[in-house]
Write a structure and sequence with these properties.
This protein is of the alpha/beta class. Helix content is about 40%, strand content about 25%. It is built from eleven helices and 15 strands. The two termini are about 25 Å apart.
């Protein structure tokens, strides 16, 4: 799978950009910070995600002085060509067309095209709160099976209603209707736990392989669900709720379920969050995304578009060369960004100079 061409109009600092990437190999976008490299990769990813990992609304995506940002591009997949056109207003929902037809659900697009993006915004997956790691697992679930994109929101909806019931309880007797909400929590929670377990299992091994290639030792990636039983997950969930009933009533909050899951990450037998060096943290976050990309490639039979923003800033020169060779060797279309010509790897197949939101293509060395 690759992006045959891309057009950005009033997207971030790209007033009008058109690029025709080579179908496979390692493409390097180079330019000083603030010139539009990250914005370019974000625009490419936007055609798949229909949103940004950096901001929660469209407004920052729209260039100053414009009312809308536009992104258009055509993916070439094993199943055929997929034209994606997105109009993002400053306020309100984006309008999306796939092969000239309106699309209302993200899953309808994500079933046809796949892209994986890594950037500095991924570091909290390793060193941030557990909520960020849970979000990463849910992102991996959707990347592998877009039809599961509503599992977490369905669970969170039930969780909010159950928490509301506990908070409004008057303290006498048992909260009316709690057992019914228990069953809904179990049903929705089991689906989330099963999906996270499957996704983590698929990405853990390739992520560890990539990390070991960089660092010389493996990255441990282990799903630690709040409730687990391989044979009867729903039964285990129900038992755990009974065990914590008194605590939940006292604290007026739900204490059992996937909203308390964790993704355990470790290097050299130590927890990455507390003990990893800055370089190890950076490499772990990058390799988790590479693990997702490998799992997606296995699932759909072709590599997704892979976008890697600033992969070198925390790596020593030897590891920089190693990661460039490994990225190029993955197959498919890989686009990375670097801030200086000295960081352009010898393995590059094409180089894009990015200045003030404009791109010029030059021959790779």
């Amino acid at each position: 799978m690759h992006l045959a061409w891309l057009e950005l109009l009033d997207f971030r600092n790209h007033a009008r950009t058109r690029i025709d990437p080579m179908p496979q190999g390692l493409i390097v976008a180079v330019g000083p910070n603030g010139e539009g490299k990250t914005n370019l990769l974000e625009g490419m990813h936007f055609l798949y995600a229909l949103g940004s990992p950096r901001v929660s609304t469209n407004e920052p995506l729209v260039r100053e002085g414009a009312d809308h940002a536009y992104a258009r591009g055509e993916f070439v997949t094993l199943s055929g060509r997929v034209l994606v056109e997105v109009e993002a207003p400053r306020r309100g929902a984006s309008r999306v067309k796939v092969n000239r037809s309106p699309v209302r659900r993200r899953r309808d697009l994500r079933r046809q095209v796949r892209a994986v993006l890594f950037g500095p915004f991924d570091l909290p997956i390793v060193i941030g709160d557990p909520a960020r790691r849970r979000a990463f697992m849910d992102e991996a679930v959707v990347a592998l099976q877009p039809g599961r994109d509503t599992l977490t929101t369905a669970y969170e909806r039930v969780l909010r209603q159950r928490n509301r019931l506990l908070k409004e309880w008057d303290g006498s007797g048992a909260p009316k209707g709690l057992e019914a909400w228990d069953e809904q929590l179990i049903q929705a929670g089991v689906a989330v736990v099963a999906a996270r377990a499957e996704a983590t299992e698929l990405l853990a091994a390739p992520a560890s392989v990539e990390f070991e290639a960089l660092a010389g030792y493996p990255l441990v990636v282990r799903y630690a669900p709040n409730v687990w039983d391989a044979d009867d997950l729903a039964g285990a969930f129900r038992i755990r709720l009974d065990e914590r009933r008194a605590d939940e009533l006292q604290r007026r909050a739900s204490l059992v379920g996937p909203h308390r899951d964790e993704l355990e990450l470790a290097v050299r037998d130590l927890g990455a969050r507390a003990f990893a060096s800055h370089g190890e943290t950076w490499a772990a976050a990058l390799c988790l995304r590479l693990g997702v990309a490998s799992a997606v490639a296995d699932a759909i039979g072709e590599p997704p578009l892979l976008l890697v923003d600033d992969p070198y800033s925390a790596l020593d020169p030897a590891r920089r060369d190693r990661i460039a060779e490994r990225l190029r060797g993955r197959g498919g279309q890989v686009v990375i960004s670097v801030a200086d010509d000295a960081d352009v790897p010898g393995a590059a197949d094409a180089v894009w100079d990015v200045r003030a939101g404009s791109i010029s293509v030059r021959e790779a060395a």
